[in-house]
Each structure stands twice: as structure tokens, then as C-alpha cells.
Design a protein that fits this description.
Elements: E1 19-23, H1 24-37, E2 41-46, H2 53-61, E3 65-68, H3 71-79, E4 87-89, H4 96-105, E5 109-112, H5 115-124, E6 129-133, E7 141-143, H6 153-165, E8 169-174, E9 179-181, H7 185-203, E10 210-212, H8 230-244, E11 251-254, H9 258-261, E12 265-277, E13 280-285, H10 294-297, E14 304-306, E15 317-323, E16 332-340, E17 347-350, E18 371-375
Parallel strand pairs: 1-18, 2-3, 2-11, 3-4, 4-5, 5-6, 6-8, 8-10, 10-11, 13-15
Antiparallel strand pairs: 1-12, 7-9, 12-13, 12-17, 14-17, 15-16
């Protein structure tokens, strides 16, 4: 659904909340920045970040391939007209039925990171291209992904050999430096580790050509100096490949998710309750950790502003606790947030909400998932007066 918003839509009491406002033009702009920062790279959007069909359609229309994790994501990619050659799967945990489905659809390649997964792929998708996921340092990421996935260098060599023995086509390596990674050096270190494996595989008769540097590209609407830009990361990646990989990969793959759609989204919420509990002021919103703000529960710091209204005059700042509407005591969004004085009926806007908002959301307690409202095609998210 594409609704062109007026400048006052978020403060209009008739506009339903919670609402997730997505600016398509901002997404295309981010896509172009990735292309310019890493011109040798091939972009495969990580659908998990925001799989709304209209969002994915815009990204595919800009020229992106897709990285999928499940059969429903594969079905959407195919419905959007993408051929299997422009789809990869970097989820190391795949059911046999999903593997078969990808094989039938001609998905270009899929990841493995264990003996069992390699054997499973060989059995259900014989002859498929595979790439091996390395375990790399996630220090400096807001949401580390280390531990559940990935193998060390010796195991990677073993899996590449095993894949060939089982009739698969091992084509390369991948890694993930962690979600919202604030340490660009992580990419450099991971590329260096990949290059060492790369050289050893050539000595074993392999001819790798595929290097997938994953996602983790950070966003930051407030543009603090601690958040590296796409351009900064791209320059380091390009230099690392030039220095450490004399035989540059024929396919350098990027999997931006949050980095493509994060800054394009605003989550608009309404304050539906307020309470004083000891020295704490609590504000209860119509969106919480169960229906839109799950990442805050995982430790992702929200960037939130009050929707301004000239008739309010000056409001003194206060430390508040933000919570959601459900009857679960875990539904606490953030504590010790400094905001101007807020009243029931006021609206708050969460910035950088284009990724992992509706994707994580449920209708727990019957509360609604944010309605997605799209702008673009020459329009943009309205300039909201924030205080």
C-alpha cells in the first residue's frame, strides 16, 4: 500500500498509530551509496531486515539480488520476478524441504557451516554451489552474532574438501561481523582471514571465486561520529581486498539489510498511559517490544523524539522509562530516556526504524503490528517538527 503523506500526517490525530513510515527514495539512495562505495561488489539485499513486498520490490528494481533465509522469502523473491541466479541463501540452518525447493528454483548458491549441513545439502540438492561461513570477531557490534554460526579456518578447509568429495561445487567463503557493527576493522580482519584460507584451498586444487562479506552495515539517523559510514567501510574493504587477496574474487557479495532500509523508516507511536512509580516516570506507548520494538529488548538503543506542536510551548526535560501496552512486565522499551515533558495523547517517533520493526512484531495480547505507510517516487518522509 502506497500512501503519500502530507507534512502533518504524523501529528494528525486521525492518522492511526502505531505506524511504520518508509521512504522509498531513501532506500534507493542508500543502495546507490553502497554501489559507489564498493563498485566491484554485488548487492544481495538481506530480506530478513524488512520483507514487505513493496519494500523488496523497490530494492529489486534498483538492481539488487536477494539473500533469503526461508521458503516464504524464496517464494516472494520468485513472485517479484527474480530468477534463481540472482538469489543466494546465507542461513546455515535449512530444512530438507527448503533445500529441495531452492534446488528446484535454481538458487545460485547456499551456505554451509557444519559437516551435517554439507551432507544434507549434498543429499537434497546434489551438485549445488556452496560457500562456507567463517566465525569472525564480532567485537564492536551492537548485536553480536558470534557463537551460533560459523567455523574456524581448519574446519572451513575441511568443509570445502568435503563439499567437493560429496559432489557439490564449493565456490567461496562468507562471514558476518555482527549486526550494527561499529568497528570497521572487523571487515578487514575477516577479509584477511578469508585470504589465508583462499590461498590454502588453491593448494588443494580448488578454484574459489566467491567472497561474501555479509551484512552488519550500521545506520545512524543522529549521525554521531561513533557510527562509521558506508563510505568509510567501503574504502577499508576495497583496500583490504587489494592488499590481502592478490587474486581478487570474481564475485564480491554484500548483504546489507539494516544498512539499506534502516534509516528509511520512522515508527510513529502514541502515548496511551503515564504513571509515577517512586522516582520514575513511566510512559506507556501503543507499540512495545512485542509489536515493533523487539530490538530494544535485545539491547539496541532507541533514538526517539517527541512530535512537536507549537501550542505546547517550552517543555522541561525529564528522564522517563518507555514501555509498551501489553500486560507483560518484560515489555519495557528503554529506561533513563531524556525527553521533553510528555503527556497522554502525545506522539513519539523512533528513528532508524526501517529494519527489524514489523519483521520481529507479533499481535501478542491483541495489539496491532504497525501499519506500513510508504512514501517515495518523488515524495519523502515529511519534515516532522521534533522537540
Amino acid at each position: 500500500m502506497n500512501n503519500v503523506l502530507s507534512d502533518s500526517v504524523v501529528s494528525d490525530p486521525l492518522t492511526p498509530t502505531p505506524a511504520l513510515v518508509i521512504d522509498f527514495d531513501q532506500i534507493v539512495s542508500a543502495y546507490n551509496r553502497f554501489q559507489h562505495a564498493m563498485p566491484e561488489g554485488l548487492i544481495y539485499y538481506a530480506m530478513k531486515a524488512n520483507a514487505n513486498p513493496e519494500v523488496v520490490r523497490v530494492i529489486v528494481g534498483a538492481g539488487s539480488g536477494l539473500e533469503i533465509a526461508s521458503a516464504p522469502e524464496l517464494d516472494l523473491a520468485l513472485r517479484l520476478g527474480l530468477s534463481g541466479e540472482r538469489i543466494i541463501c546465507s542461513n546455515p540452518i535449512k530444512s530438507p524441504a527448503f533445500i529441495k525447493r531452492m534446488h528446484e528454483a535454481g538458487v545460485y548458491a547456499m551456505v554451509v557451516d557444519s559437516t551435517y549441513e554439507t551432507e544434507k545439502v549434498a543429499h537434497h540438492a546434489p551438485g549445488s554451489r556452496v560457500y562456507v561461513r567463517l566465525a569472525v570477531d564480532n567485537t564492536g557490534s551492537v548485536l553480536p552474532l558470534a557463537g551460533k554460526f560459523g567455523v574456524d579456518r581448519d574446519q572451513a578447509l575441511h568443509l570445502i574438501d568435503l563439499a567437493r568429495e560429496l559432489g557439490l561445487r564449493p565456490i567461496g567463503l562468507t562471514f558476518h561481523v555482527g549486526s550494527q557493527c561499529l568497528a570497521p576493522q572487523n571487515w578487514v580482519n575477516a577479509i584477511k582471514a578469508s585470504s589465508e584460507i583462499w590461498r590454502k584451498t588453491h593448494g588443494r586444487g580448488h578454484d574459489l571465486y566467491f567472497l561474501d562479506i555479509g551484512g552488519g552495515f550500521p545506520v545512524g539517523h543522529h549521525h554521531t561520529a561513533s557510527i562509521p559510514t558506508i563510505e568509510t567501510i567501503g574504502a577499508l574493504v576495497n583496500q583490504a581486498i587489494e592488499e590481502h587477496m592478490p587474486e581478487a574474487p570474481a564475485m564480491l557479495v554484500l548483504e546489507p539489510g539494516r544498512g539499506l532500509v534502516g534509516e528509511a523508516g520512522l515508527l510513529v507511536t502514541e502515548v496511551i498511559g503515564k504513571a509515577s512509580r517512586g522516582t520514575d516516570t513511566w510512559l506507556y506507548l501503543d507499540a512495545g517490544v512485542f509489536n515493533g520494538l523487539m530490538e530494544t529488548y535485545e539491547g539496541f538503543p532507541p533514538v526517539v523524539r517527541v512530535v512537536g506542536n507549537a501550542s505546547n510551548g517550552h517543555r522541561p526535560p525529564n528522564l522517563v522509562t518507555l514501555a509498551g501496552p501489553t500486560c507483560d512486565s518484560c515489555d519495557v522499551i528503554a529506561r533513563h530516556v531524556m525527553l521533553p515533558e510528555v503527556h497522554i495523547g502525545d506522539r513519539l517517533v523512533f528513528l532508524d526504524a526501517g529494519a527489524y520493526t514489523n519483521e520481529y512484531a507479533s499481535n501478542f495480547n491483541g495489539f496491532s503490528i504497525p501499519e506500513l505507510i510508504a512514501v517515495g517516487h518523488g515524495a519523502s518522509i515529511p519534515q516532522i517538527e521534533l522537540v
